[in-house]
Amino acid sequence: KPRASILTSVGVPGVRPAPVVAYFSSRGPGGLSQSILK
C-alpha cells in the first residue's frame, strides 16, 4: 500500500534564501525544469 505525505514548508529565522536566476536567463539550470541545462 503506497503512501505519500505533503508537508508545508517552514522558514528558518535569520537565514536568507538562496538567490534565484530568472526563468528566461541563459545561466544555470532552468527554473521550470531543473533537469534541463541551458
Give a written overview of the molecule.
With about 40 residues, the protein is low in regular secondary structure. Helix content is about 0%, strand content about 0%.
Portion of residues within helices: under 10%
Q: How many strands in all?
A: 0
Main sheet overview: none
Note the total helix count: 0
Q: How far do the termini sit from each other?
A: 39 Å
> Multimeric state of these chains?
single chain
Strand content: under 5%
- Roughly how many Å is the radius of gyration? 15 Å
Question: Topology, please?
Answer:
Layout: no helix or strand
Characteristic terms for this protein:
38 residues; little secondary structure; 0% helix; 0% strand
Describe the structure concisely for a colleague:
The chain has 38 residues and is mostly loops. It is 0% helix and 0% strand. The chain is flat.
